[in-house]
Write a structure and sequence with these properties.
Pfam families: HTH_17 (PF12728). This is Helix-turn-helix domain-containing protein. The protein is α+β, with helices and mostly antiparallel strands. The chain is 40% helix and 15% strand. It has 4 helices and 3 strands. It has a 3-stranded antiparallel β-sheet. A hairpin with a 2-residue loop joins strand 2 and strand 3. The radius of gyration is 21 Å and the shape is rod-shaped.
Length: 67
């Protein structure tokens, strides 16, 4: 009977996930080349980029702005 081949220790360790980067309303507006007021309107009406609220702060993930 043959022993099972050894796996590399490097392959077993997954790469650490990169934390998402979040932007404020003003930063996201600059990133998208829009006015901050346009993003605020899109939040109320709908159809804008996905946002998250941390307490009272509205934040946009860069990955959502690129989508």
């Amino acid at each position: 009977m043959r022993p099972a081949p050894l796996r590399s220790a490097v392959a077993a360790v997954a790469a650490p996930a990169q934390p998402q980067r979040y932007l404020t309303n003003d930063e996201a507006a600059e990133y998208l080349r829009l006015s901050p007021r346009t993003l605020e309107k899109q939040r109320v009406i709908g159809g804008g980029p996905k946002f998250r609220k941390f307490g009272r702060r509205v934040m946009y993930a860069v990955a959502d702005l690129d989508a």
